[in-house]
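Hi both,

Apologies for the delay on this - the queue was longer than expected. I finally got the magnesium ion-bound model through. Below you'll find the protein sequence and the ligand SMILES exactly as submitted, and right after that the structure tokens for the full complex including the ligand.
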Amino acid sequence: MSQKNLIVAFGGVSPEHEVSVLTAIQAISALENSSYQIIPLYVTKNGRWLTGESLLDLSNYKDLPKLESQAQDCAFVKDETGKTYLKEQNVSGLFSKPKSYPVYAVLCAFHGSEGENGAFQGVCEMMNIPYTGSGVLGSSLGMDKVKAKLVAAANGIPVTKAVNFYESDWVNEQDDIITVAEDFGYPLIVKPVSLGSSIGVAIANNREELNEAVETAFRYDAHLLIEEAVNPLMEINCSVIGTPDNCKASVCERPLGKAETLSFEDKYQSGEGAEKGMASADREIPADIPEALTRKIQELSVKTFSALGASGLARLDFLVNANTEDVYFNEINTIPGSFSFYLWDRSDLNFTQLMEELIRIALKKHQEKNGRVRSYDTNLLSEKAMKGIKGLKGTK
Ligand SMILES: Nc1ncnc2c1ncn2[C@@H]1O[C@H](COP(=O)(O)OP(=O)(O)O)[C@@H](O)[C@H]1O
Ligand SMILES: [Mg+2]
């Protein structure tokens, strides 16, 4: 392949759409002088797949309808040899020919929903193209707080006590759920199982607030968690790069939220920094905590990354009791905002090197997958094989 077409996939039907655009544009500028030809794959808020030059310029996102009209529909297609292309669709005009780019690799820069929960990763698997980040299972585990905690706990990683339930459980067994939760003691944390960015997360100090928080959270998700609150809380995050069998941790960061519970506004909309994405949020890097606590969190990060079968790059978020220094795994972000580059440039990998490393891991995983036997020459539907099968018309 003469030209290495790197498809940068971002946007998506997600509350974190805009943050994904920022992450993607940051990654694209980090790769400016690389050997890759960058091809954007922008998924609109309605789920349309678009490509085209105009998608590479952040200022064009101020006017989304205009941007969409300038861009071109596209899809992954395969040729008769099985090679995958990103191909323009619905190209009109007598002399216009749809452009078609052989896919070298896909850089996944989505945040939230189908771009991060394994669905898009499944499309890449079906198309048999290399893609960055976690696979289908690792990605979907990262999107389900209950399942992620279960797998972590089964691997000896400490998590907070929690009870999870669906809307029908809340109708039928509300008293039992409240009894279990109140056993943890107030304050309690209520959160949707599959969302991010603190949407629907609330702290409850008594039963009335608990009921209210649950009702509110059900507006966002049909599956909820009530957790014991870590109090006083110190949040520490750490990024991990590699594969489950070979990965390493970055320095730790300490996000500094204003409110008791970090809100979407705290994270992304705190004033001047909007264009810088996650890198601008208030944070302390490296976290000013005892050396032993840093090491403990780095070790837990690597262990959790492996246990959840994550791959590529992830950010692992921990809740630390500021008095006792007890550490609890809270969540894994399999495509962290700004790819957590600000943690890695303190760990001797600049943004460009980080992206190159992520692509290298994607290519290696892809090679390994294709190096194993995956198809068999025998045709069970051949005439000979069908002879013994009863009940099929025409096989007598
Ligand atoms: N068990 C808990 N105790 C104290 N605070 C919590 C707890 N769980 C979550 N929080 C607070 O709520 C925020 C959002 O919760 P989190 O589980 O990270 O959800 P999200 O996926 O929306 O980021 C955390 O960053 C933290 O400030
Ligand atoms: Mg969080």
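Main takeaway for now: The domain at 150-156+232-366 is CATH 3.30.470.20 (D-amino Acid Aminotransferase; Chain A, domain 1).

I'll put the files on the shared drive as well.

H.
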